[in-house]
């Protein structure tokens, strides 16, 4: 199974890194370093998926692919 794409970027407003998973609505996390943000969003992903499963909500298939990768595939 293909896994979910994760974005990590620095936020001047927050003074740290934000990691998010575009396919999982509102699934994001904060960290002072990219590594911490990544570790936190992986925890958030597991919690998001568990909550969706427990509440009988649809779990989206991984589909997000950044434009950079789309160009490379062409």
List its traits.
19% strand; Double Stranded RNA Binding Domain; 74 residues; single chain; 38% helix; alpha+beta; three-stranded antiparallel β-sheet
In brief:
The chain is α+β, with helices and mostly antiparallel strands. It has helices at 34-54, 67-73; strands at residues 7-11, 16-20, 28-31. A hairpin with a 7-residue loop joins strand 2 (16-20) and strand 3 (28-31).
Structure description:
This protein has 74 residues and is α+β, with helices and mostly antiparallel strands. It has a single domain, classed as Double Stranded RNA Binding Domain (2-Layer Sandwich). It has helices at 34-54, 67-73, and strands at residues 7-11, 16-20, 28-31. A hairpin with a 4-residue loop joins strand 1 and strand 2 (16-20). It is globular.
